[in-house]
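Usage example:
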Amino acid sequence: AQTVTQSQPEMSVQEAETVTLSCTYDTSESDYYLFWYKQPPSRQMILVIRQEAYKQQNATENRFSVNFQKAAKSFSLKISDSQLGDAAMYFCASPNFGNEKLTFGTGTRLTIIP
Amino acid sequence: DAGVIQSPRHEVTEMGQEVTLRCKPISGHNSLFWYRQTMMRGLELLIYFNNNVPIDDSGMPEDRFSAKMPNASFSTLKIQPSEPRDSAVYFCASRSGTAYEQYFGPGTRLTVT
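Running the assembly step on the lines above writes:
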């Protein structure tokens, strides 16, 4: 993607509840990938989930799922049954085809309220 | 399998000193990336290598920064001389040739006083 935008600098959710983090992107490519990365206080960047644009089915990894709206260029992350360990910065990212760079959003800081 | 390995995890040095950060990518990965993360600028790509060859170093801030990848299992990022504004977390990431996702190391927190 040429640009990746995360419009929610901070979000909070009650433990065990569901939260959705938003991401929009802009690209001229017809086929591309989208990723969500998690950065907990330990600062390690952890790949949470990936979506391939040509696949119509939304990706799911356990409690994490995406809502991929290709026409709207929207790629949101839904976390179900939130746990204290989900507290982290979450980054949306997409590679720029042709040069392999990952374009990152500015991140959303997620707080879990016990 | 071991992930991306970076050393040191923390580095504190004085202005003017040389700093060398090290990275071992995941075995079998043929692309390696160096990033810098700061509060002000977020994640910035500094340089990346394909098959040990530097492909794009347009993100390297200035000539004080240099990176090498002498073989498929080792890369260094060197800052000489270091300045306080170089203080940041530096990440190394690697990627296999058949996928687009990158896997990150734990990062090196650099503090230049």
